[in-house]
Here is the input.
Amino acid sequence: MPMNVLVCVKRVPATAGQITLTPDAQEIDTRYLGFTISPHEECAVEEAVRMIETHGGSSTVLTLGPEAAVDQLRDAMALGIERAILLETDGREWDPVATAAAIVEAIEAERAAGRSYDLVMFGNESADSAGYQVGVRVAGTLDLPCVTGIKAIEIDQGRAAVRRQTESGWETAEVALPAVLTVKEGLNLPRYPSLPGRLKAKKKEIERITPHWQDGGLEKIRLKLPVQAEHKVEILGKNGDVGAEMVEVFQRLRLL
Amino acid sequence: MILAFIEQVDGAPTLLSLEVLTMAARLARNMDVPLDAVAIGPNGAAARGILTSYRVGTLHLADDLRLAAYAPAAWAHTIAELADRINAKVVIGTASDRGGEVMAHLAARMTLPLAANCTEIVPGDAFIVTRQRWGGSLLEEAHLKGRVKLLTLAPHALTAEASPNRTEVATQTFAPVLDDKDFRVRLIPQVEADSGKISLAQARVVIGGGRGVGSAEGFATLEELADLLGGAVGCSRVVTSLGWRPHADQVGQTGTRIAPDLYIACGISGAIQHMVGCRAAKHILAINTDPTAPIVKQADYAVIGDVQKVLSAVNAEIRRAKSGHERMVTEAPAG
Ligand SMILES: Cc1cc2nc3c(=O)[nH]c(=O)nc-3n(C[C@H](O)[C@H](O)[C@H](O)COP(=O)(O)OP(=O)(O)OC[C@H]3O[C@@H](n4cnc5c(N)ncnc54)[C@H](O)[C@@H]3O)c2cc1C
Ligand SMILES: Nc1ncnc2c1ncn2[C@@H]1O[C@H](COP(=O)(O)O)[C@@H](O)[C@H]1O
Here is the structure.
């Protein structure tokens, strides 16, 4: 049975070795950084592409963010997502309530235009702000069932059988579509984009909707870096044979 | 009134729930308001004993057989009803998978903001919270508004502290009015057969491999060291993305959080998303060709060199030490 799948992704800086803040401590200094989306969301994108390959239908990627977030939409299209929607902001971050409301508004506008989604996928948490809630809020407002933290999905006859990991094993659930699922990395191993995929994505149109901001009630005052304790590293050796030194460390830590 | 949503296993509150109670008790003292707790699911009443050390006035228990199984929306509906009934001004839960999920449903249902993974909470008309971003590599100070403040507490933001002065805890059972709709999602646990393998999260020693290991086959030396030390093998995200190891082995922000006595990071650069996964390690030993790699600066011990050469040498040395030890044991005169 063909299905319509929507995936929501968020543009975030690809921080690596350390984080530097802007002088006003409002943002991460991104002058020397690239941008990406959360690994969880990458898996959501891959899963959507696979679902359409298996069941037919259509996939859409959506983001709320600045014009530059078009890059992340094109990255998703390079992997096989067909359509992209940008809810364009001035680049300031919206809190989870405002973000969820804007996504709901877009989904309702789509429905009014005759396109309703069988499945809406989110990351379990965004890479940067990690509010652990946008997907659940969207499900709540749209009155759809929602399962979070998913690491396996099987779609069959209008139902989704899902699995997620716990400390002691797994939990399973089954929901009727339409539904909202928030997923975690490990759901699948995302493919790398092909060159033709990239070229095709470059030419695709990006649909735009102007979202309405609202005060969601969680308001950033400033960012700060956690204090790092003073730290000294003991160099056990370079290149040469350090076996004995390492064994001594293991013995000191009572591991041998 | 402050309401703490606690999770319990067979009547014993989880460690994270004790941390939540500790924070909630401090807040209650600060705000000069009483503290109640709610437990949902089987055996909740058995948690009462421990709550006597956390200034809890009443432990609320939900009476609805359907709540025995975990159904996030139904659990949230239950807490929302209770919060209304006791006029709670704050509801605080853990940031565990379950705690976070229920609190998100609660926030959606009550149409209130939710501050997740808080490390500090300063009450006021709007609360000022400090919360974790990027898995804890960055902190955000934020105003949290709303007629009821909803929060989850980051794991180990503080140490759980039982008060030496025990107080009486009443229990009260209430019957929430739940819709069938609340039970559209029910999670059925599947306990996995014990594989006998040491789990990454529990291991005393973890040997982590990154891009510098070179290939999937290159992990053989890490496996060997793990066997020799009785540890588990972990890896970086680059390694899982390349398909060298399964995602279950990944340490970091979107992988597993580990807390071993020793983490041996082999050919791993030490990106912040990796480091948040291993910052609870008591000691870190880095093996890296690059003395300026971020991991080297954050390690307690470092070896500057090629992973394979270093590990082959140390594996041989341990085998030698072990066989020497065995020889001594077998050669020791009897009696
Ligand atoms: C939102 C988000 C979430 C993420 N989550 C995670 C996560 O959960 N876990 C995670 O690990 N990463 C995560 N990442 C990725 C992270 O940013 C890094 O890209 C990744 O950790 C780097 O892996 P690495 O250290 O193996 O590779 P690299 O950064 O390429 O480092 C390889 C290291 O090996 C050394 N080396 C090379 N050859 C040798 C040799 N022969 N012998 C010894 N050393 C050698 C090099 O000097 C270098 O330091 C995440 C990224 C984002 C944006
Ligand atoms: N600005 C955004 N645009 C699109 N999707 C978003 C945005 N922010 C969050 N999301 C989605 O909601 C998930 C959870 O976000 P959060 O509640 O912030 O942890 C993310 O993994 C995304 O899938």
